[in-house]
Amino acid sequence: TWPTPVTMRFIPSQAGFIDIVRTDRAGHPLIRVGEATASANRRHTVLHNGEVGLRIVEHLMAALALHGITSVRVEVGGGEPPIADHSAALFHEALVQAGTVSAPRPHPPLKVIKPVTVTMNHRQIQVMPSCHTRIEAVADYTTSRKGFEGIGREHFIWWEGDDIAPILTARSPWRAVEYKKWAAVSTLFRPFVGIPAIHQRLVEYSQTTEHPLMTNIPFRQSRGLMYARDGTLLPPNGAPKGPHEIAQHHMTDFVGDLTARFGHLPQGNYLLFRAGHLLNGYTADALVEENAL
Questions:
Q1: What is the C-alpha separation between 21 and 33, in angstroms, rounded?
Q2: pTM for the whole thing?
Q3: Contact in structure between 91 and 255 (CB atoms under 8 Å)
Q4: I need a labelling partner for 190 at 20 to 30 A (CA). Which of 36, 86, 117, 213 fits?
């Protein structure tokens, strides 16, 4: 990860909680998922126990949730888990290799008991009761690559019991060159930091969605692209792994953000339209405030 290497270990636990331990801090403070504060910004989610925090936890949380793990000790030697290729694949592979066993839960799993809809800046999440967990994601995007420019829409549905690998291996749409080699600085801040080696350029597109459950919701899509100082477009970290990678990654972040808040993903039917960390956090708040769990 960047800027310094981080070591992380999964350790079996009988505590009945996901406990994160910061081994790089004196006394090895513990962050208990579900009890610690989970806060989201536009780029990631942070867990904090009032003394110490851990940022960019969503991919780790998603891997644990989709593997059905609710009791584990995770030792992290830094302020964030390893980022790897901007997906949860690293954690997924480690958990597959380690294996899991069934164990009693200290608390019954949460279930959605009434519908909740949250809308923010032309984005929306709908949550409905269901006897099985189902997630549907719609992602509109723009692309600008050498020799190709266009817009598109991705639509992906995942049911409880389906293969979790496509979700956990989907990389962030903000794929950039390795942070160890380059420093990405937003165009907005260029006057204040001199001439950076690379800057981000946002490509925007607006239209009205025709999704049957979300009619007439205007939206604007921004996608981060990397350019060198001479204006040459830098390639992302590899080609997309599949035709639904952006929608699948939205699922990764959503599952991880809600797990960071509740300790697991509540059973329900979720419809995500251009979801993001802030909207995911507001949805978790709404589920609590409207007594929907």
A1: 11
A2: 0.77
A3: no
A4: 86
